[in-house]
Amino acid sequence: MNYWLVKSEPFKYSYDDLVRDKKTFWDGVRNYQARNNLRAMKKGDQVFFYHSNEGKEIIGICEVAKEAYPDPTAKEGDWSVVDVKAKKKFKTPVTLKQIKDEPKLADVALIKQSRLSVMPIEKKHYDLILRMAS
After folding, report:
1. DSSP-assigned beta bridge partners for residue 8
2. Using an 8 Å Cβ cutoff, are 47 and 63 in contact?
3. How many Cα atoms within 13 Å fall on the side-chain side of residue 93?
4. Average pLDDT, integer, range 8-14
5. Superfamily of domain 3-133, CATH level 4
6. What is the DSSP-derived secondary structure letter of residue 9?
7. What are the sequence ranges of the domains in the chain?
8. Shortest CA distance to 93 belongs to which of 63, 123, 53, 134?
9. Radius of gyration of the chain from Cα atoms?
């Protein structure tokens, strides 16, 4: 199993929207590295859901429900989506500030590649962030 983080601006699509919808396809990715990360996702992989711009926090966990397929919203180009389903909303979200303040998380992509919208998370970092949320 692999671990990931996806970002969404909550006014466009929030974790509560995912809970309401139960499942959605993760579309609109137009960065090659993020697209390749989507294509590397496997069914059952765990995914942190990060609210960007507003909140700047990991709000919960979703799970890859269907592996990569062509993005139905792409008018041109070779873009992909995966289906994700809601798994668990955190009672206490983990803020970007908390992540930056934790020395053991200094090399996570959320800090090192802050503009990337889909990124891998190492298991040790995933586990630490889960502990921070509880």
Report:
1. 51
2. yes
3. 16
4. 96
5. ph1033 like domains (3.10.590.10)
6. -
7. 3-133
8. 134
9. 14
Q: Using the 8-state DSSP alphabet, how is residue 125 labeled?
A: H
Confidence of residue 118 (pLDDT cuts 50, 70, 90): very high
Q: Residue 8 has what pLDDT?
A: 97
Evaluated on CA atoms 50, 10, 46, 61, the torsion sign reads positive
Q: Model confidence over 70-88: pLDDT tens digits?
A: 999 999 999 999 999 999 9
H or E stretch at 4: strand 3-8
Q: Over 15-72, what HEC string results?
A: HHHHHHHCEEECCCCCCHHHHHHHHHCCCCCEEEEEECCCCCEEEEEEEEEEEEEECC
Average pLDDT over residues 50-70: 97
pTM for this model (two decimals): 0.96
Left, alpha or beta for 3 (phi > 0: left; psi -120 to 50: alpha)?
beta
The encoded tokens of residue 62 equal: 């979703």
